[in-house]
Amino acid sequence: MSAAYKLALLLKRRSELSQGAFVDAWLTRERRRPLVAPGLVRHVFHGPVPGQRPIAGADAAHYDAVVETWWKRANDAADWVTSREFEQQWLVDRGELLGERPAAVGGRPNMIWEREVTDAMAPVTVIVLPVARGSLRFSEFEDHWIGAHAQLALAGPGAKSRLVSIEDTPAPVPPPACFTGTRYDGVGAITFASPEALAAEFDSAWYREQLAPDERRFTNPDASSALVCTPIDLT
Fold it and tell me: Is the pTM above the cut of 0.85?
């Protein structure tokens, strides 16, 4: 089922929790009280892989996990985050693990390319949080990101054998006010078949000579962020 809206929640853990303890406790709560809401299409938790910063034009994101949700309509996501179930159940149940209220980025997802995940794969996802280059209108940033840049990523030698999917979600308007604000102009999810596939892609001459320079044509590398994660589908 296709989704018309994606909402990504950016999580920071309480300082006294280790990364591993935070992820384990979050997933325990997901199993105990899973997210169920009208219009929810898909729900994925991303726990970060420590020490990874592959993208040249983005700093390491200062988040400890990302929750991606896809919805049939933008109004379905809005109804959920303004509901009693969100504030008094979902957020309360998980809030004791968080150092601050979640930040969020949302918009219409664009699945650029994907293939089926097989049992032989061990997928890892790069969550990209871009900030548009200041000299560009938002429409110019969006067009370059989901157009020329995405096609350049797919054109590299061996790229499609390493990739599982590319999904880009420009965010032309801020998320609901109940979340911590950010400067990000979207959220991207680049999934690779394995950690080795990710390393091969970002170590390639194509990335260094073609993709990395192109990142600077439409993003502000000093303000953009990225996080390498292990995806766990909770749908």
Answer: yes
